[in-house]
Write a structure and sequence with these properties.
alpha/beta, nine-stranded mixed sheet, globular
């Protein structure tokens, strides 16, 4: 064990970290010595630093809020007890939902501003914040029980490297839980209706639709490619499906009944995930187990 004498001593090797930072009474925060400095990574880090202040407001958009209300609990049920990595933790919304007495959390993000907000949500007795890149984690091999990727892989220039790295950190039987934008989502099916409704409910003083903010790096994940990479990494599929199919339809917030539609659509999407999983939703969901 290292000098701190804590639960994460054997998980976070001291020779790969840049020491302890922040308020000693708060959630401990470490920085990885090895942070890739390629241009794409630096640009994406800067973008997320700038987004941190408004990041949680995206979850107040009705279609996202309704979906999050059941998808985050689904993530929670897929995660076992033990030491859990929440990779790409952002402001810590998922990490906060994963907190319980039989888990210890390591909240990982490259953005300093995101981590600062995540730390405010976490229990310092059971959590650690780690500034690191998902492709080069300062985590001991075979030392964690689960890793959660909720909206991080699609921001990485070469996301398969992160899957291989996360598999390395898992103990035999440990789980990788993935929730990412789905490359198989047939967005073009909904586009004509969305455009029609946008025009119909557009205020007279606004000439056209606005676009949501996108990060500089966006690579939706193909479930088949993920499966191939996971097998190479020594992972066995436990579950695969998708969410936000009917619930992905972008209705104008000025349209009467749009909130009721999202409530009903997500009831259907959730039932389908349980009874007959498919791969056409806007989000791909999967659970993998480390073999060996």
């Amino acid at each position: 064990m290292n000098q701190h004498g804590t639960w994460y001593d054997d998980v976070l090797p001291a020779d790969r970290l840049d020491g302890l930072a922040g308020d000693p009474a708060g959630v401990p925060c470490f920085t990885a010595l090895d942070l890739p400095d390629d241009e794409a990574s630096l640009i994406d880090e800067k973008y997320h630093d700038g987004e941190a202040e408004i990041y949680d407001s995206y979850c107040e958009i009705p279609r996202y809020r309704e979906a999050e209300s059941w998808i985050v609990p689904w993530l929670d049920t897929a995660v076992p007890a033990g030491i859990v990595l929440d990779v790409g933790t952002g402001t810590g919304r998922v990490a906060a939902a994963l907190q319980r007495p039989d888990r210890r959390l390591i909240a990982v993000d490259r953005s300093v501003e995101m981590l600062a907000r995540a730390r405010a949500r976490l229990d310092p007795r059971r959590s650690v914040a780690l500034r690191s890149d998902a492709r080069t984690l300062p985590i001991a091999s075979g030392s964690v029980d689960a890793a959660v990727c909720s909206g991080v892989l699609h921001h990485l220039p070469h996301w398969p490297d992160a899957v291989l790295e996360l598999a390395r950190t898992l103990r035999p039987g440990g789980r990788l839980v993935v929730r990412e934008p789905n490359a198989r989502y047939p967005e073009h099916w909904f586009a004509p209706l969305e455009n029609l409704l946008e025009r119909a409910f557009r205020p007279a003083d606004r000439p056209g639709p606005t676009e949501e903010s996108l990060s500089p790096t966006e690579y939706p994940i193909d479930p088949a490619t993920l499966a191939t990479v996971a097998r190479v990494a020594g992972l066995r599929r436990v579950f695969e499906g998708s969410a936000m199919f009917l619930g992905s339809l972008a209705l104008p917030d000025r349209m009467p009944g749009h909130r009721s539609y999202y409530a009903a659509a997500n009831l259907v999407d959730r039932a389908v995930l349980r009874l007959r999983p498919h791969s056409r939703g806007a989000l791909t969901l999967s659970v993998w187990s480390k073999v060996g």
